[in-house]
Specification:
The structure is a homodimer of 432-residue chains. By secondary structure, chain A is α+β, with helices and mostly antiparallel strands. Chain A has ten helices and 26 strands. The first copy, chain A, folds into two domains: 104 residues, SH3 type barrels (Roll), CATH 2.30.30; 294 residues, Fumarylacetoacetase-like, C-terminal domain (Fumarylacetoacetate hydrolase, domain 2, Alpha-Beta Complex). In chain A, strands 6, 7, 8, 13, 14, 16, 17 and 22 form an eight-stranded mixed β-sheet that branches. A five-stranded antiparallel β-sheet of chain A has the order 4-3-2-1-5. A five-stranded mixed β-sheet of chain A has the order 9-26-25-20-21, with no helix packed on it. Chains A and B meet through β7, β10, β11 and α7 of A and β7, β10, β11 and α7 of B. The complex binds calcium ion (2 copies), magnesium ion (2 copies) and nickel (II) ion. One calcium ion (CA) binds next to loops of chain B. Chains A, B: This is Fumarylacetoacetase.
Chain lengths: 432, 432
């Protein structure tokens, strides 16, 4: 299939080709109220302005709902359902296509082009959804195995439940932030001498601040309390995907997490990318996940073999000195469980979902050293150091370090479906 | 101090004496839009109607904010801050007092009395807050000890961190429901033979459905991400308290919870009482919590000795046959950590809170068998049976069982500060 071409200039290698059309929330210097946009090349198409100027004149379906584009989150748009998201994306693709059947809408309408197409560098992006509940899973088998080996040795690395259900925990929705938001190093209780017989915690700035390379998926269809989402309907409930960095305080976690799981180690910040790539746009990049050699219960069995996405993921670390090093390259196919399986398992109890709820995949690591999605795995819990370009090394994150996750599907430079960046820089801990 | 008397008939023994004035959200057959009310005796005072009819004419502070009483949740009222909650409560007390300085407002205004004072039996109550995030703690030392003994024996009953920090986990906000909402028995993965070498889960209706007797506290003051709430300011951030039943699926929990904590075992429903008792109303009932024999870090040290509430709690179980048995009587003083300590610890990382966030205390148990706040503790994980009145027995909850938690402060029958009821009845599991 040759790529869709646009009359609009989309730089080669852009994550936001015509094949993508991801949705986000923007504001600008001259118009500070957050509203809905899509990214196209190195521009945002402001859908509030577009809608207000008859941009959707040829798409009657959306006309009664155009106020969704004036909202400060994607929730109202998401509520309309996947068939509508699909129609809107296809319509925008056709409006932007070289041979658009609707040239008057934008191609030859220079006034609207000037108003609605804003360079991304002039745009401020906001958290794309108002998130009700956020759940983080642990579906990255290689990560779970690597971490298990570090703490329990290879023969007990995975817990007995791991291959039977997508292990997960409820996370903190209030601290999910959009790419670019600074992350302050947390303070918390840690053990300065974890091996001592008598455990004496101190209050300290986190000394083992880590990243977790993850994907996030947003829910677009609510279910009532008591009514599980069957696996056959779970895909229809998922709006789209973002990159996610689940910042983690390993020393706080080690002390606090028995018996109820990670808590303060996780709730100080979780960064997601600003542009949500629709499930539809990712459809061509579906592939098989990691093989599950245990028999999965019927309620979690999917009809299709290809249930996860082959997104090429990359993590780079830029230090205060300006040195930048790619520390991880892997694919998001390294998951044992798909997002539909996560949603179905999560709701099997009757747990209700609201539109805008966020599911995290769990840390994604490949098999190789260079494919590990957390510093903990790379440094073997602090035993080895991670070499950066120049002469710098790291065990865990230092103040001023900036982490950038990127993700992209496809190889045709004119038809990439990418996520842009998921960035966060570490600020020094608050002095208490 | 002799009790405040009212010109209005407040039945002896009412939880909602003039000393209380709890806030909630109501609707009625004739006016279905949820709005704010207070409970007084066996009536609700509809504050939307009261405000619209000059009820607050003598309280200038609140006049610019009267729209908060027309909201479908207490969030907007809570945002105004504790000094305002205090003023509004005192004003309503004075309006209802026998010797009210404002007789025209309500006492002699029979039209408004008829419109605004609605029998509680004619009122539908709703979830009092729009809850952003819900966190459940584990501050009931006796419960943590009892459960620890069951699973690890008496010498390792408490984890090393237990007395150093309030252990907690992020919960599921979407399934917090108001008293009276039916609870459907969850389905989930359980081990029919937990002791077998090879663990083979089945999908089943929960067979160990349990209760947890808890208190919940609502947050009324936001903090920015990165800015902890100091212990000296934590009380100002807490709006008030409700009774809470943290329904728990013990068999689902046992299989799923290692290593990331309870998840599906908890997310199918959490019931809270409808009327939120203001922190101000509970002030006279503060007392010392359980003694902590470890040295608490300074950031968690409180100035006052009396940091928890002496609420007389009771749990009753009514079976399908109509038989009702009081299965637990205890006091909420059985906590090792106070709500201010929970909030301060939770935010020490910089975790941001929003108004309406909910903190659960953890299961409250006294030292005696008859004071245990969960069935798991009463039946020693299924080993012994719980005798009910008549000839019925229970290990865990059966379909049709109804659990009612009540809580009340004080002993003067004309000045009780009570919570009403927190009720939930078990419906059969969905057939899958
Ligand atoms: Ca994670
Ligand atoms: Ca609990
Ligand atoms: Mg996080
Ligand atoms: Mg619960
Ligand atoms: Ni009456």
């Amino acid at each position: 299939m040759s790529p869709l071409r646009s009359w609009f200039i989309i730089p080669r290698g852009s994550h936001f080709s015509l094949a993508n059309i991801p949705f986000g929330i923007i504001s600008t210097e001259s118009s500070k109220t957050p509203r809905v946009a899509v990214a196209i090349g190195d521009h945002a198409l402001d859908l509030e302005v577009f809608a207000a100027n008859n941009g959707f004149s040829a798409l009657s379906t959306i006309q009664p709902h155009q106020d969704v584009f004036s909202q400060p989150s994607l929730n109202a748009f998401a509520v309309l359902g996947r068939p509508v998201h699909s129609i809107v994306r296809k319509y925008l693709q056709s409006v932007l296509a070289e041979d658009t059947p609707y040239p008057d809408v934008l191609k030859t309408n220079s006034t609207l082009r000037r108003q609605a197409l804003i360079p991304l560098k002039d745009v401020k992006t906001h958290l794309p959804f108002k998130i009700g509940d956020y759940t983080d899973f642990y579906a990255g088998l290689n990560h779970a195995y690597n971490v298990g080996v570090l703490f329990r040795g290879p023969s007990n690395a995975l817990q007995p439940n791991y291959k039977h259900l997508p292990v997960g925990y409820h996370g903190r929705a209030s601290s999910v932030v959009v790419s670019g938001t600074p992350i302050r190093r947390p303070n918390g209780q840690i053990l300065s001498n974890p091996l001592a017989e008598k455990k004496v915690p101190t209050l300290s700035a986190c000394q083992k601040l880590d990243i977790e390379l993850e994907l996030g998926a947003f829910v677009c269809k609510p279910n009532s309390m008591g009514e599980p989402v069957p696996i056959s309907e779970a895909e229809e409930s998922l709006f789209g995907v973002v990159l996610m960095n689940d910042w983690s305080a390993r020393d706080i976690q080690a002390w606090e997490y028995v018996p109820l799981g990670p808590f303060n180690a996780k709730n100080f910040g979780t960064t997601i990318s600003a542009w949500v790539v629709l499930a539809d746009a990712l459809e061509p990049f579906k592939t098989k996940g990691l093989e599950n050699d245990s028999k999965v219960l019927p309620y979690l069995q999917e009809r299709d073999e290809n249930t996860v996405y082959d997104i090429q993921l990359q993590v780079s670390l830029k230090t205060k000195t300006g040195n930048s090093t790619t520390i991880t390259k892997t694919s998001s196919r390294n998951l044992l469980w798909s997002f539909p399986q996560m949603l179905t398992h999560h709701s099997i109890t009757g747990c209700p979902f609201n539109v805008g709820d966020l599911l995290g995949s769990g840390t994604i690591s490949g098999l190789e050293q260079s494919e590990r999605g957390s510093l903990l795995e790379q440094n073997e819990n602090g035993k080895t150091s991670i070499k950066l370009s120049g002469s710098e090394v790291r065990h865990f994150l230092e103040d001023g370090d900036e982490i950038t996750i990127t993700g992209v599907c496809g190889s045709d430079e004119e038809a990439l479906v990418g996520f842009g960046e998921c960035v966060g820089r570490i600020e020094p801990a608050l002095k208490l």
